């Protein structure tokens, strides 16, 4: 009589062999998207993914503000024109410190005044008279240089021009604080005030010159520029400065990198002051490329904008923000 143990062992052996095969067949397959994702996950180090598209700079929200004008950097009023202010109640007594001001300053009218942003020639560089000096809160140690603002007189039919027209101004200078004067009476650029200091022609297009103080609204807007970004190279063979101007889009610059066509790799420059950037890297003898980054996290790379024999004091044109 045959032992019943042998058939039982044979059956168990067959089941052990067949079970993994059945399990493999029953495992669900990856969907198309899962398979692609799985493949990318395995080979991510071999694949350079496309850069994320960054939208163009868009206008910001309107902010309530108010405006004044004064003569000189100290914030002193023009007595002949503004004597009427002393004959009425303090116009800022019911306004909060978060409001901005816009002022008129005769001292800033010379077209070639470099100001805190160090533009070589404001008029010649295409900014014209529509420029503004910003208080420290807005100026941000020069980071706001080149930014564009739309400003308009608001909610004051007595002084606002008919239709409340708006103007675009570019930040080209710093309006320094005057701690010796109260924030609401002459110390318009004191922290935490937001303040715009503009030329008389600009102020006069918004409101009557003798208004003294007007409410305004302002917002950041894209800068519309003709041609490409300009790079003016200054300094000497041991120390280099580059003034970056005519920047479109956001208008302001947060980072500048320079690269040569031979030995110099991409090198981060440091902000010297305003629109002027500096480096001690050797730039002479190389065709230079520049990469400019704006506050909206967009980059504009200008390849080989200078010849190898570029000269100090010369300006070269690159690519602007689209």
Automatic annotation (TrEMBL):
Leader sequence residues: 1-24
Keywords of this entry: Cell wall, Cell wall biogenesis/degradation, Membrane, Secreted, Signal
Gene3D superfamilies: Expansin, cellulose-binding-like domain, RlpA-like domain
Stored SUPFAM superfamilies: Barwin-like endoglucanases, PHL pollen allergen
Domain Expansin-like CBD: residue ranges: 238-318
Function: Causes loosening and extension of plant cell walls by disrupting non-covalent bonding between cellulose microfibrils and matrix glucans. No enzymatic activity has been found.
Pfam families reported in the protein's UniProt record: DPBB_1, Expansin_C
Family membership noted in the UniProt record: Belongs to the expansin family. Expansin A subfamily.
Name of protein: Expansin
Subcellular location: Secreted, Cell wall; Membrane
Cellular component GO terms held in the UniProt record: extracellular region; membrane
Boundaries of every Expansin-like EG45 domain copy: 114-228
Biological process (GO), any one: anatomical structure morphogenesis
């Amino acid at each position: 009589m045959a032992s019943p143990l042998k058939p039982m062992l044979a059956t168990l052996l067959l089941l052990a062999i067949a079970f993994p095969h059945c399990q493999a067949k029953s495992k669900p397959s990856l969907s198309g998207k899962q398979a692609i994702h799985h493949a990318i996950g395995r080979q991510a180090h071999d694949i350079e993914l496309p850069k994320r598209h960054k939208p163009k700079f868009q206008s910001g929200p309107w902010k309530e503000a108010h405006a004044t004008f004064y003569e000189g950097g100290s914030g002193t009023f023009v007595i002949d024109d503004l004597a009427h202010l002393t004959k009425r109640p303090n116009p800022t007594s019911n306004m909060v410190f978060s409001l901005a001001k816009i002022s008129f300053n005769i001292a800033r009218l010379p077209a070639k005044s470099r100001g805190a942003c160090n533009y070589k020639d404001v008029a010649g560089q295409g900014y014209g008279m529509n420029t503004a000096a910003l208080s420290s809160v807005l100026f941000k140690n020069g980071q706001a240089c080149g930014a564009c603002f739309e400003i308009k007189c608001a909610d004051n039919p007595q002084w606002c021009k008919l239709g409340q027209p708006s103007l675009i101004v570019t930040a080209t200078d710093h309006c320094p604080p005057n701690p010796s004067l109260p924030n609401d009476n002459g110390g318009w650029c004191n922290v935490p005030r937001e303040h715009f200091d503009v030329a008389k022609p600009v102020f006069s297009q918004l409101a009557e010159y003798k208004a003294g103080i007007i409410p305004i609204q302002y917002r950041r807007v894209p800068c519309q520029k003709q041609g490409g970004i300009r790079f003016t190279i200054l300094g000497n063979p041991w120390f280099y400065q580059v003034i970056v101007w005519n920047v479109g889009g956001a208008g302001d610059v947060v980072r500048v990198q320079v690269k040569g066509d031979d030995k110099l790799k991409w090198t981060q420059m440091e902000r010297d002051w305003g629109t002027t950037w500096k480096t001690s890297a050797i730039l002479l003898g190389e065709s230079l490329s520049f990469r400019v980054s704006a506050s909206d996290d967009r980059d504009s790379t200008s390849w080989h904008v200078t010849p190898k024999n570029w000269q100090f004091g010369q300006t070269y044109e690159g690519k602007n923000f689209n």
